Amino acid sequence: MAPFKSSKGRNVGKPLKSYKTGNIGDTLQETAPNAMVATGGVTSLPGNGSKYHFLTADIHTFTVVTTPGLIDVEYLAVGGGGAGGNYPSGNSGGGGGAGGFITGTFPNMAVGTYPVTIGQGGASLSNPGTPTVFNAITAYGGGGGSPSYGANGNPGASGGGGGGAGPTTGGTGDRVVPSGPVIPAPLSPQGNPGGTGGPSGNSGKSGGGGGAGGAGSNAAGQSGAGGVGKVAFNGDTGIPDSYGTAGPSTGRWFAGGGAGGNYPSTGAGGAGGGGSQPGVIDGVANTGGGGGGSQAPTAGDGGTGIVILKYSAE
Fold it and tell me: Which among 302, 269, 298, 272 has a CA at the least distance from the CA of 86?
């Protein structure tokens, strides 16, 4: 398999005249005769000169069928998000940390079949997400939010938030779950720490889970918000709205942290699929978003991860 190097996402090629999407395994012959032909996942030709493959939980291979020469393939890989925490009375669990976010380029990707493992979100209570793996790239799982009142958040690609009472600390980011070693270079950094919970004057307040783009917020008057995620390929507008979420800027966002739990209110989930209450407590599927901490009666699960591939369609 080809080596990889990190790079910024970019648009390539000249605009096409039509928008095409395909199902799993389609070769989409609408691509130009001299373009690379590949299968796997759901495919899209949005008319910006690039072709995209979206590989989610039920997809297990990406196959380069033919290539006319030296074709670079950009990638985005996101691990599964961590679950939120849940104190037994139904509040004060920390938000789950987002799955790891890593992007770059595979230069001159060769003909062949590449296995893909999509990370699963952690199931509440406080369980970590699992890694997404593709062609020697691993996006690690997010850490779970604090499992009980007064407990610290767990480490992960992004760390889970600390629980109420305390003061409690958020889980460390850029770590491999569950044991917590630093994610090795060149695969790091992948995320950020969770926010702190408590102190005793804010006994019901917990920290938000970390996101790919920022740390979870500390508890202060209310529970902390989940950390913001990151936008795919520098704000590329070719990704359909069915993937990722809206965010602070143009493009689709992934790997937002889960909100810290608290009764009667919580912070917000981070842009990029972080769960919160009231509202969507689970991390959004295929974003790697962290699950929201408990309000009542349970905490949210982490969102599943994703792999997105992009290359010239001309």
Answer: 298
In the block, which residue shows the tokens 């590449």? Answer: 114
Nearest Cα to Cα of residue 98 among 259, 243, 280, 237: 259
pLDDT in tens, the chain (314 residues): 444 444 333 333 333 333 333 444 343 345 566 789 999 999 999 999 999 999 998 878 999 999 888 889 999 999 999 999 987 665 688 999 999 999 999 998 999 999 999 999 999 889 999 999 999 999 999 999 998 778 899 999 999 999 888 789 999 999 999 888 999 999 999 999 999 998 766 677 899 999 999 999 999 878 899 999 999 999 999 999 999 999 999 999 999 999 998 766 667 999 999 998 667 789 999 999 999 998 666 789 999 999 999 999 88
Classified as helix, coil or strand, 310 is strand
Output the DSSP codes for 5-74: B-------SPPPS--EEE-TT---TTS-TTS-EEE-SEEEE-SSSEEEEEE-TT--EEEEEE-SS---EE
Q: Tokens representing 6?
A: 């990190």
The DSSP secondary-structure symbol of 33 reads T
- What is each CA distance from 142 to 44, 70, 255, 305, in whole angstroms? 28, 35, 9, 10
Give the list of residues 6+ apart from residue 235 with CB closer than 8 angstroms, or none: 249, 250, 251
